[in-house]
Design goal:
Blueprint: E1 7-15, E2 20-28, H1 33-40, H2 42-45, E3 54-57, E4 60-62, E5 73-77, H3 84-99
Parallel strand pairs: 1-5
Antiparallel strand pairs: 1-2, 3-4, 3-5
């Protein structure tokens, strides 16, 4: 539990192409992912995130109403820039061309 069992220590992270933004704070018991996002001020710092971003806890996608546990790391996910399978096909095609 958090300090004296009355609070949760949480972290909110947002990975950008060139850096990682991080906020650590204490929230009351019963707080959810949305509460952590609001307390962190991430939406004011990065308006492109919007009001309902995709978020996860330790790599698992969750709803914004998901209750938090002590020491959770809330991750904000950016939209993919391209389809991962298409990017792999492109790289494989370039590798074949280089071998010729």
């Amino acid at each position: 539990m958090g300090p004296e069992g009355t609070a949760l220590q949480v972290e909110v992270v947002f990975a950008l192409p060139d850096r990682c933004w991080r906020w650590r704070g204490v929230l009351p018991l019963g707080a959810c992912v949305q509460d952590a996002l609001d307390a962190s001020g991430v939406a004011a710092t990065f308006p492109e995130i919007g009001s309902a971003p995709s978020a996860g806890i330790f790599g698992a996608l969750v709803e914004l109403e998901q209750p938090l546990r002590n020491a959770d790391r809330v991750e904000i996910y950016r939209p993919l820039r391209c389809d991962p399978m298409e990017a792999r096909r492109r790289r494989a095609g370039e590798a074949v061309k280089r071998r010729k």
